[in-house]
Each structure stands twice: as C-alpha cells, then as structure tokens.
Amino acid sequence: MELSDLGNKHAGRIGIVAGAGPSLLAVDPKMLKDLGVVISVNSSISKLTNADYFIADDIGVRTWDYYRITLPKIDATCLLYRKKLAGEANHIPKERVIYFDHKWWYDPGSKKYNPEGLILTKDPKAPLVGARTSAGTAVHFAYIMGCDPIVLVGCDCCYKQSKRYFWQFPGEKPCKRLTGEKVFCHNNRGTHKGYAVDSHSMDFIEYWTAFAKANPDVNIIDASDGTLECFKKMSLQEVQEEYGGVFDRK
Over the stretch 70-84, which tens digit does the pLDDT of each residue have? Predict the structure, then answer.
C-alpha cells in the first residue's frame, strides 16, 4: 500500500485521532470504532486494538511492547515515519505498512519556527506537516483521507492524579519497554489552566495552538478532557448527534 492509496479514502466520515492521555480511560473502543475512522497514536493502540490505523513518528516506540508485540497481531494499517522507523518494522506484515516523510516546523538547533510547515495539504505524495506530537501527523492523515470532522480524544496535554497516560491508572494493563527501562514522566512544570503539566505538555499546547492558527478552515474538534483551547470543544455524544453515525453510549 502507498500513501497515494489514502487520498479521500474515507471522504465525509468522522476521523478520530486517539492519544494516550488520561481521558482515554472513559472511551469505549467499540463505541469509538462505530463513530468513525480511528487513528491510534503510539500507546493508545494497547487499548484501541480495533483501530483502523496506527501512527508513530518516534524511534523510541521500537522498544515498547505495544509496538513489538501488539501491532503484528492486529489488522491496523501502520503509518510510520520513514526517517526513524524504516528499519524497525520487519515484524509487521509489509502490506500493512506505509512510510511517510515530514516538513519541519521548529528547528531546536537554530530555535527557528517555520509556520508554513504546519499548513495541511491534500496531496498524499507531499511531506506531512512538521510534528511535535504524532497526533499532529495523524490529523494530517485524516485530512488527506477526507475525514470531516477530525476529532481528538485522549489528547489531554496534561496530567491527572499525577499520571500522564491512561494505562498508568489502576485496572489498566500498563505498557512496558521490553528493555526493562522504567517510564519516566513527572509533572514538573506546575499547573496550566488548573491542570498539572510537564515540559512536553507545554510544548504540545504551543504546537496545537500554532497548528490551529495555520489551518483555520479545517474542522477539528477536541473531545479530550484537557488543556487545549484552540479547537472547538464537544463530547463524543455531541459529535454523534451533530455529525451522525451509529455511535451509542449504551
């Protein structure tokens, strides 16, 4: 499969971009799948094993159990950043892997921003937007595939009960690095809008704010329970009522 195969593949359907924030605890995977096309970002796949797509930008995923053990067992099409993961996908059937390239948004070396690097394009052969979070890449894929609206879930950009990920809560199966390396995350940047945050949280908020400014005509809805204020806020139930589908909370 090639990137060009995705152009308008899901035109008019609701596209759901699922991060792994604490609010994903309250989301039922079947209900989410009934609502629209599900793009799972990084460790959210450990819960959303019925997702249509999985996406990752970071080479760090290669040591996680959800990437090495879960992905080969499910049917999701895997969208992987070529530069970092082209040599780390031999365990996934080739017909399920699509590689992509990126534009750039921020250069840490020069500390310069490239606002044009966040403008979405429908061209499936063009590099995708620069990404501080893989969820941004997922939004671009949803846009290329013709999804409308594009709905964010689990993109909280904050901590809850001192936890950054849904799988850190009691009752959830934790994700693990196969190297045995411990997961380090600490809300060390105080609070923002009443939520505990770390430096990554603040980077994500900056990124999404710039993303929204660069794409004012793209219908992006935030159904997460977190800090973002740059997109329209709606619950999943409200999304279903306004845009249709067979979503049912019962």
Answer: 999 999 999 999 999
